[in-house]
Protein backbone atom coordinates (compact mmCIF):
# COMPACT_ATOMS: atom_id res chain seq x y z
CA UNK A 1 0.00 0.00 0.00
CA UNK A 2 1.38 3.43 -0.97
CA UNK A 3 2.01 6.20 1.55
CA UNK A 4 -0.90 8.20 0.15
CA UNK A 5 -3.26 5.23 0.53
CA UNK A 6 -2.05 4.60 4.07
CA UNK A 7 -2.70 8.22 5.06
CA UNK A 8 -6.12 8.07 3.36
CA UNK A 9 -6.94 5.01 5.50
CA UNK A 10 -5.74 6.88 8.59
CA UNK A 11 -8.06 9.78 7.76
CA UNK A 12 -11.09 7.54 7.17
CA UNK A 13 -10.53 5.68 10.43
CA UNK A 14 -9.60 8.64 12.61
CA UNK A 15 -6.09 7.31 13.20
CA UNK A 16 -3.96 9.46 15.50
CA UNK A 17 -2.02 9.17 18.73
CA UNK A 18 -5.44 8.98 20.38
CA UNK A 19 -6.15 5.75 18.52
CA UNK A 20 -9.43 5.96 16.68
CA UNK A 21 -11.97 3.46 17.89
CA UNK A 22 -11.59 -0.06 16.54
CA UNK A 23 -8.56 1.03 14.52
CA UNK A 24 -6.44 1.10 17.69
CA UNK A 25 -6.30 -2.71 17.73
CA UNK A 26 -5.24 -2.71 14.07
CA UNK A 27 -2.58 -0.11 14.79
CA UNK A 28 -1.14 -2.16 17.65
CA UNK A 29 -0.99 -5.31 15.52
CA UNK A 30 0.66 -3.37 12.71
CA UNK A 31 3.34 -1.95 14.98
CA UNK A 32 3.96 -5.38 16.48
CA UNK A 33 4.69 -6.75 13.02
CA UNK A 34 6.71 -3.68 12.08
CA UNK A 35 8.88 -3.97 15.19
CA UNK A 36 9.93 -7.47 14.15
CA UNK A 37 10.16 -7.12 10.38
CA UNK A 38 10.51 -3.45 9.42
CA UNK A 39 11.37 -1.17 12.37
CA UNK A 40 12.44 1.68 10.07
CA UNK A 41 9.05 1.77 8.36
CA UNK A 42 7.34 1.36 11.72
CA UNK A 43 9.31 4.37 12.97
CA UNK A 44 8.20 6.51 10.02
CA UNK A 45 4.56 5.49 10.53
CA UNK A 46 4.86 6.06 14.28
CA UNK A 47 6.14 9.60 13.86
CA UNK A 48 3.33 10.43 11.40
CA UNK A 49 0.67 9.03 13.71
CA UNK A 50 2.19 10.85 16.70
CA UNK A 51 1.99 14.21 14.90
CA UNK A 52 -1.42 13.59 13.34
CA UNK A 53 -4.27 15.76 14.68
CA UNK A 54 -7.80 14.41 14.12
CA UNK A 55 -10.26 16.88 12.58
CA UNK A 56 -12.10 18.89 15.22
CA UNK A 57 -15.73 18.02 15.91
CA UNK A 58 -18.32 20.32 14.31
CA UNK A 59 -18.85 23.66 16.10
CA UNK A 60 -22.10 22.47 17.66
CA UNK A 61 -20.22 19.72 19.52
CA UNK A 62 -17.46 22.06 20.65
CA UNK A 63 -19.92 24.63 21.99
CA UNK A 64 -19.83 24.90 25.80
CA UNK A 65 -22.43 27.67 26.03
CA UNK A 66 -19.94 30.54 26.15
CA UNK A 67 -20.10 33.34 23.61
CA UNK A 68 -17.44 33.29 20.90
CA UNK A 69 -15.93 36.55 22.11
CA UNK A 70 -14.30 39.18 19.92
CA UNK A 71 -12.23 37.73 17.06
CA UNK A 72 -8.60 38.76 16.73
CA UNK A 73 -6.59 38.40 13.53
CA UNK A 74 -3.16 36.87 14.23
CA UNK A 75 -0.91 34.57 12.26
CA UNK A 76 2.10 32.32 12.80
CA UNK A 77 4.43 32.66 9.80
CA UNK A 78 1.48 33.75 7.69
CA UNK A 79 -0.79 30.93 8.90
CA UNK A 80 -3.95 32.19 10.59
CA UNK A 81 -4.81 31.57 14.24
CA UNK A 82 -8.41 31.46 15.46
CA UNK A 83 -8.06 33.83 18.45
CA UNK A 84 -10.89 35.07 20.70
CA UNK A 85 -10.95 37.63 23.51
CA UNK A 86 -13.37 38.58 26.29
CA UNK A 87 -13.45 41.31 28.89
CA UNK A 88 -10.98 44.00 29.92
CA UNK A 89 -8.12 44.04 32.38
CA UNK A 90 -4.90 42.07 32.98
CA UNK A 91 -4.48 39.43 30.26
CA UNK A 92 -4.97 35.73 30.98
CA UNK A 93 -4.11 33.24 28.22
CA UNK A 94 -6.02 29.94 27.98
CA UNK A 95 -4.13 27.09 26.25
CA UNK A 96 -5.75 23.80 25.25
CA UNK A 97 -3.87 20.52 24.89
CA UNK A 98 -3.13 18.08 22.10
CA UNK A 99 -5.97 17.54 19.60
CA UNK A 100 -8.02 20.12 21.51
CA UNK A 101 -9.70 23.46 20.83
CA UNK A 102 -10.28 26.68 22.76
CA UNK A 103 -13.77 25.74 23.92
CA UNK A 104 -12.28 23.07 26.18
CA UNK A 105 -11.25 25.90 28.52
CA UNK A 106 -14.33 28.05 27.99
CA UNK A 107 -15.57 27.21 31.50
CA UNK A 108 -12.89 29.63 32.75
CA UNK A 109 -13.97 32.57 30.60
CA UNK A 110 -16.92 34.01 32.54
CA UNK A 111 -15.41 33.59 36.05
CA UNK A 112 -12.16 35.24 34.94
CA UNK A 113 -13.94 38.11 33.20
CA UNK A 114 -16.07 38.59 36.34
CA UNK A 115 -12.85 38.73 38.36
CA UNK A 116 -11.60 41.62 36.21
CA UNK A 117 -9.39 39.89 33.64
CA UNK A 118 -9.19 40.02 29.87
CA UNK A 119 -9.29 36.43 28.65
CA UNK A 120 -7.61 35.30 25.42
CA UNK A 121 -8.03 31.83 23.93
CA UNK A 122 -7.16 30.30 20.59
CA UNK A 123 -7.00 27.12 18.55
CA UNK A 124 -3.40 25.98 18.09
CA UNK A 125 -2.10 25.52 14.53
CA UNK A 126 -3.75 22.51 12.84
CA UNK A 127 -6.32 22.45 15.65
CA UNK A 128 -9.93 23.63 15.74
CA UNK A 129 -10.52 26.44 13.25
CA UNK A 130 -6.90 27.58 12.91
CA UNK A 131 -4.86 27.13 9.74
CA UNK A 132 -2.38 24.25 9.35
CA UNK A 133 0.85 24.47 11.31
CA UNK A 134 4.47 23.98 10.41
CA UNK A 135 3.96 20.26 9.60
CA UNK A 136 0.96 20.69 7.29
CA UNK A 137 -2.77 20.04 7.41
CA UNK A 138 -3.89 17.74 10.24
CA UNK A 139 -0.33 17.50 11.57
CA UNK A 140 1.28 19.33 14.47
CA UNK A 141 3.86 19.07 17.23
CA UNK A 142 4.33 20.81 20.55
CA UNK A 143 6.48 23.29 18.63
CA UNK A 144 3.28 24.56 16.98
CA UNK A 145 1.72 25.15 20.40
CA UNK A 146 4.85 27.06 21.47
CA UNK A 147 4.71 29.13 18.25
CA UNK A 148 1.11 30.07 19.02
CA UNK A 149 1.63 31.21 22.62
CA UNK A 150 4.70 33.21 21.57
CA UNK A 151 2.67 34.93 18.82
CA UNK A 152 -0.29 35.71 21.07
CA UNK A 153 1.84 36.93 23.97
CA UNK A 154 3.82 39.20 21.60
CA UNK A 155 0.53 40.77 20.52
CA UNK A 156 -0.51 41.63 24.08
CA UNK A 157 2.93 42.26 25.55
CA UNK A 158 2.10 42.29 29.25
CA UNK A 159 0.64 38.88 30.15
CA UNK A 160 -0.67 38.48 33.67
CA UNK A 161 -1.24 34.73 33.67
CA UNK A 162 -1.53 31.49 31.72
CA UNK A 163 -3.96 28.63 32.31
CA UNK A 164 -2.93 25.59 30.29
CA UNK A 165 -3.92 21.94 29.99
CA UNK A 166 -1.91 18.83 29.10
CA UNK A 167 0.41 19.44 26.10
CA UNK A 168 -0.60 23.09 26.30
CA UNK A 169 1.04 23.10 29.72
CA UNK A 170 4.22 21.70 28.15
CA UNK A 171 4.17 24.47 25.55
CA UNK A 172 3.59 27.06 28.27
CA UNK A 173 6.52 25.72 30.27
CA UNK A 174 8.81 25.81 27.23
CA UNK A 175 7.70 29.37 26.44
CA UNK A 176 8.27 30.53 30.02
CA UNK A 177 11.70 28.87 30.21
CA UNK A 178 12.79 30.39 26.89
CA UNK A 179 11.58 33.87 27.78
CA UNK A 180 9.00 33.93 24.98
CA UNK A 181 6.35 34.90 27.54
CA UNK A 182 6.65 36.44 31.01
CA UNK A 183 3.46 35.80 32.99
CA UNK A 184 3.25 36.61 36.67
CA UNK A 185 1.28 33.45 37.45
CA UNK A 186 0.61 30.12 35.76
CA UNK A 187 -1.88 27.34 36.40
CA UNK A 188 -1.05 24.05 34.70
CA UNK A 189 -3.74 21.37 34.77
CA UNK A 190 -2.84 17.74 33.98
CA UNK A 191 0.56 18.97 32.76
CA UNK A 192 2.53 16.94 30.24
CA UNK A 193 6.10 17.80 31.19
CA UNK A 194 8.50 15.93 28.91
CA UNK A 195 8.85 14.48 25.43
CA UNK A 196 10.19 11.29 26.99
CA UNK A 197 6.89 10.88 28.84
CA UNK A 198 5.01 11.28 25.56
CA UNK A 199 7.15 8.61 23.90
CA UNK A 200 6.53 6.26 26.83
CA UNK A 201 2.76 6.85 26.68
CA UNK A 202 2.61 6.25 22.93
CA UNK A 203 4.79 3.17 23.23
CA UNK A 204 2.28 1.68 25.66
CA UNK A 205 -0.85 2.85 23.86
CA UNK A 206 0.12 2.09 20.26
CA UNK A 207 2.17 -1.04 20.86
CA UNK A 208 5.55 0.28 19.78
CA UNK A 209 8.53 -1.93 20.45
CA UNK A 210 11.87 -0.48 21.61
CA UNK A 211 13.32 -0.31 18.09
CA UNK A 212 10.23 1.47 16.79
CA UNK A 213 10.23 3.98 19.64
CA UNK A 214 13.90 4.71 19.10
CA UNK A 215 13.34 5.35 15.40
CA UNK A 216 10.26 7.50 16.04
CA UNK A 217 12.34 9.77 18.25
CA UNK A 218 15.19 9.88 15.73
CA UNK A 219 12.87 10.70 12.81
CA UNK A 220 11.13 13.45 14.79
CA UNK A 221 14.54 15.04 15.33
CA UNK A 222 15.98 14.52 11.85
CA UNK A 223 12.92 15.36 9.75
CA UNK A 224 10.99 17.77 11.97
CA UNK A 225 13.60 19.31 14.24
CA UNK A 226 11.80 18.04 17.35
CA UNK A 227 14.35 16.93 19.97
CA UNK A 228 13.07 15.47 23.21
CA UNK A 229 15.59 17.45 25.27
CA UNK A 230 13.99 20.67 24.02
CA UNK A 231 10.70 19.67 25.71
CA UNK A 232 12.00 18.42 29.05
CA UNK A 233 10.19 21.13 31.00
CA UNK A 234 11.53 20.30 34.49
CA UNK A 235 15.10 20.55 33.18
CA UNK A 236 14.37 23.68 31.14
CA UNK A 237 12.88 25.33 34.23
CA UNK A 238 15.86 24.25 36.35
CA UNK A 239 18.19 25.87 33.81
CA UNK A 240 16.08 29.02 33.33
CA UNK A 241 17.98 32.20 34.30
CA UNK A 242 14.80 34.29 34.43
CA UNK A 243 12.56 34.92 37.41
CA UNK A 244 9.79 32.34 37.32
CA UNK A 245 6.09 33.09 37.76
CA UNK A 246 4.11 31.91 40.75
CA UNK A 247 2.80 28.48 39.85
CA UNK A 248 -0.08 26.16 40.68
CA UNK A 249 -0.18 22.61 39.28
CA UNK A 250 -3.37 20.54 39.46
CA UNK A 251 -3.41 16.85 38.58
CA UNK A 252 -5.73 13.93 39.25
CA UNK A 253 -4.29 10.80 40.85
CA UNK A 254 -6.20 8.66 38.34
CA UNK A 255 -4.75 10.38 35.25
CA UNK A 256 -4.00 7.67 32.67
CA UNK A 257 -2.40 9.91 30.01
CA UNK A 258 0.57 11.34 31.89
CA UNK A 259 2.71 9.97 34.72
CA UNK A 260 1.07 10.53 38.08
CA UNK A 261 4.21 12.28 39.36
CA UNK A 262 4.36 14.84 36.51
CA UNK A 263 3.31 17.80 38.65
CA UNK A 264 5.59 16.81 41.51
CA UNK A 265 8.60 16.43 39.19
CA UNK A 266 7.98 19.86 37.69
CA UNK A 267 7.41 21.48 41.08
CA UNK A 268 10.73 20.10 42.33
CA UNK A 269 12.49 22.49 39.93
CA UNK A 270 10.00 25.37 40.17
CA UNK A 271 10.60 27.27 43.43
CA UNK A 272 7.44 27.93 45.39
CA UNK A 273 5.16 25.96 43.06
CA UNK A 274 2.05 24.53 44.69
CA UNK A 275 0.77 21.07 43.73
CA UNK A 276 -2.89 20.13 44.16
CA UNK A 277 -3.82 16.45 43.91
CA UNK A 278 -7.40 15.42 43.14
CA UNK A 279 -9.20 12.11 42.83
CA UNK A 280 -11.97 10.76 40.63
CA UNK A 281 -11.67 13.19 37.71
CA UNK A 282 -9.09 11.81 35.20
CA UNK A 283 -7.03 13.79 32.66
CA UNK A 284 -9.87 15.91 31.27
CA UNK A 285 -12.61 16.07 33.91
CA UNK A 286 -10.26 17.73 36.39
CA UNK A 287 -9.93 20.63 33.92
CA UNK A 288 -13.67 21.26 34.05
CA UNK A 289 -14.24 20.52 37.75
CA UNK A 290 -15.89 23.53 39.46
CA UNK A 291 -13.33 23.30 42.25
CA UNK A 292 -10.48 23.56 39.74
CA UNK A 293 -12.05 26.62 38.17
CA UNK A 294 -12.64 28.29 41.55
CA UNK A 295 -9.13 27.55 42.74
CA UNK A 296 -7.66 28.86 39.49
CA UNK A 297 -9.58 32.14 39.70
CA UNK A 298 -8.62 32.54 43.36
CA UNK A 299 -4.95 31.89 42.60
CA UNK A 300 -4.82 34.29 39.65
CA UNK A 301 -6.60 36.93 41.72
CA UNK A 302 -4.01 36.61 44.48
CA UNK A 303 -6.51 35.69 47.18
CA UNK A 304 -6.69 32.66 49.49
CA UNK A 305 -8.42 29.70 47.90
CA UNK A 306 -12.07 29.18 48.68
CA UNK A 307 -11.63 25.47 47.89
CA UNK A 308 -11.12 23.45 51.06
CA UNK A 309 -9.40 21.10 51.42
CA UNK A 310 -6.82 21.43 48.65
CA UNK A 311 -7.18 17.74 47.87
CA UNK A 312 -10.72 17.50 46.53
CA UNK A 313 -12.74 14.66 45.08
CA UNK A 314 -15.47 14.22 42.49
CA UNK A 315 -17.50 12.23 45.02
Structure report:
Strands 1-2-4-3-5-6-7-8 form an 8-stranded mixed β-sheet, sandwiched between helices. It is globular, with a radius of gyration of 19 Å. With 315 residues, the chain is of the alpha/beta class. It has 13 helices and 8 strands. The longest helix has 15 residues. The model has no long low-confidence stretch (mean pLDDT 90). It folds into 2 domains: 72 residues, no CATH class; 201 residues, Alpha/Beta hydrolase fold, catalytic domain (Rossmann fold, 3-Layer(aba) Sandwich), CATH 3.40.50. Strand 3, helix 5 and strand 4 form a beta-alpha-beta unit.
Structure characteristics:
315 residues; alpha/beta; Rossmann fold; eight-stranded mixed beta sheet; 13 helices; 43% helix
Summarize the structure.
The protein is α/β, with parallel strands linked by helices and 315 residues long. The protein has 13 helices and eight strands. It folds into two domains: 3-53 and 200-220, no CATH class; 65-193 and 230-301, Rossmann fold.
